[in-house]
Structure formats: C-alpha cells, structure tokens
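Fill in residues.
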C-alpha cells in the first residue's frame, strides 16, 4: 500500500518524513491511515480512450475575486494557541504521537505495535528485547500523559 506521510515515521525497518510517499504493509498502512499519520496515495487511473479535446472559449474568462485583506494583528495572545489540537474521541494515536524517544518507538514498532491500543493490549512490555522496567514505566507514563491532554482522562 502506498501512503503519503503526514507525520514522521521512525522504525527499525522504515523511516519517512512528512510529505514523503512510501510503500508499507497493509497492516501498517491501515494503522497510519486510522491515526491520520498518513493519507492514501491513489493508484493512477489507466484510460484506453483518447484524451478529451482541448477546451475552446469564445468568451473572456471571469476575473478572479479579490483576496480578503489579512486580519489585523492583535497584541493579545490566543488562549487556544497552546491547547492540544482537537482530535476525534476515538482517535488511536501512533507511538510517535505519544512523545516517546525515537529508540523506544522503534522497539515498539519492531514488535508491530504501532498504535496506543496495540501497546496497551500487549501483555508485558518488558518481554520486548531492549525494554526494561524503567522504559516500560516511561511508556505507561507517556500513554497516561497523552490521555490526560487529549481525552481529559
């Protein structure tokens, strides 16, 4: 499956920057799409018919509307500027969205744990090679912090 990344992807087998188009497995692709970390890249549509003839105009095109002037700058800060972005209630964030260190995120993705729900469902994080008690506690804290900020839990 081809996707265009919206956020950064860092893993043991694949890294991608925002805007980059990459080929991923269907499972990872679905997880990235569900988390809104990527958008699907449509396959090119093949046509067998001839292209339509070029458009001919006998009248002048309509003028483009004038753009609205920019809003005046205010010196008061926007109270919502530092607020977390609105996410759907059922948003299942990727491990990248949890704010984990890249190495920790790579260890989770190496076990195909791409989403918060998959990490929470994993029986014992310390069973993953490279994750000890302290790192497991860091992951648990990152999940709790994300839920507090984005879900008020």
């Amino acid at each position: 499956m081809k996707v265009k990344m919206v956020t950064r992807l860092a893993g043991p087998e694949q890294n991608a920057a925002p805007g980059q188009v990459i080929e991923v497995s269907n499972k990872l692709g679905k997880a990235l799409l569900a988390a809104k970390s990527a958008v699907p890249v449509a396959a090119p549509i093949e046509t067998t018919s001839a292209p339509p003839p070029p458009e001919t105009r006998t009248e002048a095109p309509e003028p483009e509307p004038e753009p609205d002037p920019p809003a005046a700058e205010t010196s008061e800060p926007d109270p919502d500027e530092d607020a977390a972005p609105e996410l759907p209630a059922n948003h299942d964030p990727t491990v990248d969205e949890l704010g984990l260190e890249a190495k920790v995120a790579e260890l989770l993705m190496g076990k195909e744990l791409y989403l918060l729900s998959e990490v929470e469902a994993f029986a014992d994080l310390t069973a993953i090679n490279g994750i000890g008690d302290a790192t497991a506690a860091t992951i648990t804290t990152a999940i709790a912090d994300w839920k507090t900020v984005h879900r008020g839990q």
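The longest strand covers residues 2-5.
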